[in-house]
Write a structure and sequence with these properties.
This protein has 174 residues and is mainly β. Helix content is 0%, strand content 40%. The protein contains no helices and 13 strands. The strands form 4 sheets. It has a 4-stranded antiparallel beta sheet, with no helix packed on it. It starts with 6 loop residues before the first strand and ends with a strand. 31% of the residues are buried.
Length: 174
């Protein structure tokens, strides 16, 4: 519920809606360890749930990534030293890494849930992108050499291939 400044869970059987993150008022997250429903968030555009009961949320307004332990409702900020630029889509792999589409940064970052380390895996670490007629470049080469322009979403195809919705270039990149 991006415009409602919250993330909500809908029980499939009962159709009961429960807020798991956000107060409904726009603001900046500030206190780790707080209940997810006691903190303010901005526009949350991307969410991902892992297999052990954690929810990860990309807060586009505040440029950070949050983790909510759903069993305890404890919320914390991930990769606290990183500066994300308009984070949107998020997906995880089986090794405990998250992949974050930084729409404003024109890149895909890999975040270790365990260590909090951040590595750019696609696009430019400098955050440059373009829609000029000679681009998108990097097709067939290293992912870090590709020129992404406003990547919105990321997805694993069932193997080890990460797909990127490169919205500014109107392409799905692999």
């Amino acid at each position: 519920d991006s415009n409602g400044f919250a993330v909500r869970k809908i029980d499939a059987a009962s159709t009961i809606v429960t807020t798991v993150l956000g107060t409904g008022v726009s603001g900046a997250f500030s206190v780790s360890g707080s209940s997810g429903t006691a903190i303010q968030v901005g526009y949350v555009y991307g969410i991902f749930g892992d297999t052990v009961g954690n929810l990860y949320a990309a807060d586009n307004n505040n440029n950070f990534l949050l983790e909510v332990a759903l069993t305890t409702q404890t919320t914390s900020k991930l990769a606290t030293s990183a500066i994300f630029t308009s984070p949107r889509g998020i997906v995880g792999d089986t090794a405990g890494n998250l992949y974050l589409a930084e729409t404003g940064g024109n890149r895909i970052s890999q975040i270790s849930v365990i260590t909090g380390s951040v590595v750019v895996v696609a696009g430019s670490a400098a955050g440059t992108g373009s829609t000029t007629s000679t681009l998108p470049n990097g097709d067939g080469g290293a992912a870090t050499g590709a020129t992404l322009y406003h990547p919105y979403y990321v997805y694993f195809d069932g193997s080890t291939r990460l797909l990127v919705a490169d919205s500014g270039n109107n392409k799905i990149r692999i």
